[in-house]
Amino acid sequence: MNTKNKVFHLKTCGTCRKIIAAIAAEEKCELQNIKQEHISPEELDWAAGVTGSYESLFSRKAIKYRELGLADQQLSEQDYRRLILSDYSFLKRPVLFIGGEVFAGNAPKTVEAAAAKLAKLG
Q1: Contact yes or no for 111/22 (Cβ under 8 A)
Q2: Which residues, in sequence order, are CB contacts of 55 under 8 Å at separation 6+?
Q3: Is 64 in contact with 89 (CB distance < 8 Å)?
Q4: Which of 20, 33, 44, 80 could potentially form a cystine with 11 if both were Cys, beta carbons 3.0 to 4.6 Å apart?
Q5: Which CATH class is domain 6-121?
Q6: What is the chain's Cα-based Rg?
């Protein structure tokens, strides 16, 4: 799979916009608005392979997570995969593919690690 530098984000998400600006991702990465163009099964499978799980890419903050009562269910890795592919809101935001690594979410240490990796690449 082509592992070019890419940021999966939601264009209307203020946090995503701040992170993209802070690490200058627009200059060095392809940006993909996940509401308009969902992550592909191949990209998701690759990212899960790098991170070790689909769960690591899954957002429990999605409104549908509560609406569907998923917090009360025991979800499998295949459930996480199916849900992420079925609705863009289940993908953690942002997800960054940088230099063959995957950084998922907006935790400060995740963003710092992504910024450091991007800076190393020049």
Answers
A1: yes
A2: 75, 77, 80
A3: yes
A4: 33
A5: alpha beta
A6: 14
**CA atoms of 24 and 34, how far apart (whole Å):** 19
CB-facing half-sphere around the CA of 46: CA atoms within 13 A: 17
Q: What is the pLDDT of residues 58-91, one digit of tens each?
A: 999 999 999 999 999 999 999 999 999 999 999 9
User: Which residues, in sequence order, are CB contacts of 90 under 8 Å at separation 6+?
Assistant: 58, 59, 62, 64, 65, 80, 83, 84
Domain boundaries, the chain: 6-121
Cβ-contact 27, 5 below 8 angstroms = no
Following DSSP, what letter does each residue of 103-115 receive, concatenated? Answer: EES--HHHHHHHH
Tokens of 48: 């899960």
Q: Which residues contact 35 (CB under 8 A, 6 or more apart)?
A: 10, 11, 12, 88
Spatial contact of 38 and 72, defined as CB atoms under 8 Å apart: no
Residues 103 and 64: their CA atoms lie apart, in Å, by: 23
Q: What is the pTM of this model?
A: 0.93
